[in-house]
Amino acid sequence: MSKKTSQPNIVPRAPVVVVMGHIDHGKSTLLDYIRKTNVVDKEAGGITQAISAYEVVHKDEDGKDRKITFLDTPGHAAFTKMRERGARIADVAILIVSAEDGVKPQTLEAYKTIMESKTPYVVAINKIDKPGANVEKVKIELAENEIYLENYGGTVPFAEISAKVGTGVDGLLSLINVLADMEELKGDTNEPASGIVIEANLDPKRGIEATLIIKNGSLKSGMFVVIENSIASTRIMENFNGKPVKEASFSSPVRVVGFDKAPTVGCDFKSFDNKDDALEQIQAYEASKTKGAVNTKEESDKKVIPIILKADTAGSIEAIEKEIAKIENETTEFKIVVKGVGPIIESDIKNIGTSIENVLVVGFNVKSDKNATELAQNRNIEIAFFDIIYKLTEWLELEMEKRKRKVETEETIGKAKILKTFSRTKERQIMGGKVTEGRITLGSKVKLMRRDFQIGTGTVVNLEKAKSKTSEVEEGTEFGMMIEAKTDIVAGDVIESFSIVKK
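The structure assignment produced for this chain is given below.
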């Protein structure tokens, strides 16, 4: 970061809070009540699919306004990474549990993430207004999973709430402030801002933008933000409501518009007072990447199905990548060859080489422009669109089944013992035998076996039964035949008829 030009100004900072738990235990409803806006109705399939941040103000017991920043992490199983990141950047976590449904596997998964990140947390027992609510049963289930609440064998603070009507929510916010006070959260307002990227996306009109959570320092208009090797000026900055701001400080979510390339979600960001220092930081990052580069390419004999993936946000891409990695079999695998934030455009299709087969173009919560659609149709390339991840993965599983590499296997059709051999001309030999298993068919390929060892291969070019030509002889039948083979066959040898089958 750029050098400080003033004395430190260390002041308390607001807590960043993450809400975690089972998919339908009320996370979005709780945030909806707190910020008096609705997000649930906007979600496809009722699943929250993008990490967001919201700043609220709560009066403490002394009547003083206290800011709290909330992260809304998705609850779908595909978003484990995003939940883990949410806990990492949070100062306090809320583990939400339904008083109706109790502890679920996803509740325990969220709890594990909270514990591994060593984040202070409070339990919110939600839906206490429901007819089937049983708070005591939930406390027992929590204790059975070694989550011991205050006055119930442990020290974990908890609140009984109804996120829908607001019962107990003030008490929950007060608990968050108490935990924040215990953590003694502080920051230096005179430092250039630093923190974490929680979202990145491409706005068709404005370009690449990123949502940041400031963990320390201040971000002002005229500065430069660096995330790995991407850079943007702070000419366009917005708060969580989308309103332009000239300055933001720690714990605040802020959107910066104008990055030169899509930043990686979950990365740290730094800010600088001048562009030269920012570019120096990028050079240092690129040098470290080059120095530490290791060739991790592994040769694989699997058939590769290429995927071009475009999505609405970087977080969506990350979640989809994780799901795609799970889809494979012993012969075939998917490989994302191109990925990016924003709509499917003509260049995405143009970049598919004519030698690339079986390519799949997938759009998640994005559209395709007219030129891209027409070019794809002309080249018989399918573009598939989805707005729910599990629908996408179901489709990919079917596509893999259709396109997977066929493995050639030998299937034995029949066996026969050679009883007598007759004349031989060049590579053709006449003999008599008896079918001991299955059947022998005209034109079939055969292995020539002697004392259980293969001595050669041949082809049945003539087949007779009772001195009449036939196309097949069955088990128990004596026959005469002519075999085309380079190997001499003698009485006592065994022939095995086989076929090559692709599976």
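Interim note for the steering committee: The radius of gyration is 34 Å. The chain has a mean pLDDT of 85.
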